[in-house]
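Researcher: Next entry in the queue.
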Amino acid sequence: MRRTRLKEINVIQKSIHDIQWRIGLVYPNSYSIGMSGLTVKLLYHLLNQHRNIFTERIFFSASFPGPPRSIETGRTLTQFDLLAFTFQFELDYINALQMLLRSNIPVYSKDRTSDHPLLIAGGPTVTTNPEPLLNFVDVIFSGELETISYKFLEAIIASKHSSLMEEVLSVPGFYSSQDSGKQVTPIITSNLDDVNYPTAQVRPISGQRERKGVLDGYFLQVARGCIHGCHFCLIGRIFRPQRDRSFDRLCNLIDKGSRETETNFFSLIGSSTADYSQIKELLNYLLERKHKFSLPSIRVDSGFEVLEIISRSGLRSLSIAPESASDEVRFKIGKKISNSQIYNFIQKAEQNQIQELKLYFILGLTSDPVSESHEIVGFLNNLAGSCSSLQLNVSITPLIPKHGTKLENLCVNYREIQTGFTVLKQEMNRSIRQKKFPAHWAAVQAILSIGGRELTPIMIDIADDGGSYQSWKKNLEVEPIDYYLEHYCF
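Model: Structure for this entry, 490 residues:
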């Protein structure tokens, strides 16, 4: 076990005599954001399975203008044989281009030579719509890596530094960015019990106080995929069906993870954790060993049975996602949950000593976001009046159409959403804490989500210009909201 300058544990180290290849695992956002999720920890583990391949983590820093450097050894991007970019959010595309520019690596794949690292891109946004990145990266990976991760590493070794791209393209799920018309079936892990999962997870032990509870814990993925299929959701589009880890496997991971990651805090991961068939047994197993845990947003139609256990755990906060305040709208987007079910669940949560409730809403699910805002205000003000002991925290995000989902062609009126945000600010009960994702940035994300290679020169200019919202306005020559409405609303 090695401790880095960041004071992390479980940082992987290898003998310099064994290392034949170096992979830069690039998460094009901050360290705090990257390490507060499972993705980096899982990929870091999988890509370090081969003794002759050393994978190091690289994050984006807006405050550091120089060439990005790896956490483990301080290497720059140019000092790696291969750069594996993982994209969870479309807005990170510009960060990735800035990282290339700062490293003096040509951003166009056609301008790079064998002296440059091979660039691979993967992640959910790339799996559904790789088009905005096809002129920048060399290879696209589609799907989930676990089942073919070792084949990928063996392909790198087999290339002997002379045919790297050819060998990588021989592995299922990988295809050339110049072969975008090829139909590639995303790789899906059918049995989560059969694949490698990190028990000694890399994590910081100090220096990140603002996210300490999350960053210091063990990430336990209970299930993957979703059985519900909400029309706006990317997970329901590319990671179906839902697959559960067995109870025995999860218990094994809890015991080893607690010991090897040196923690008693577990972040349960899954799009619908409360739907797990043995969720009560799992939570009781954690409590019996005096572990603490956190849950992601849970569905109110399947979460009743865990409320009593949550109460016994000492957990006093929960998250739910009504998405809309209207039964009609909610049912139309495939979320078959009624307001009465939500109210009943919240009342039951309050009876089980829940003190803080976070609610997630999406604005723009209809052509009249202002009316949606009024409905949200009425819903939440009624809730604040009837559940006075609960602190309500509300997160409201404009709809961002995702390529391949049932709402990808829905034209979102982001200007009306801005007006709706004003309604929420002025009319909502002051005791309710509001957090809103800005509508103008949502329009930018929508452009990247459903756009294509026509964005290539614009993205480069924006990255070269600093990546700010003003850079977007300047290089689009109009407000991004207007650009979206003109080019992607039909």
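Model: The CA atoms of residues 227 and 375 lie 28 Å apart.
Researcher: Noted, moving on.
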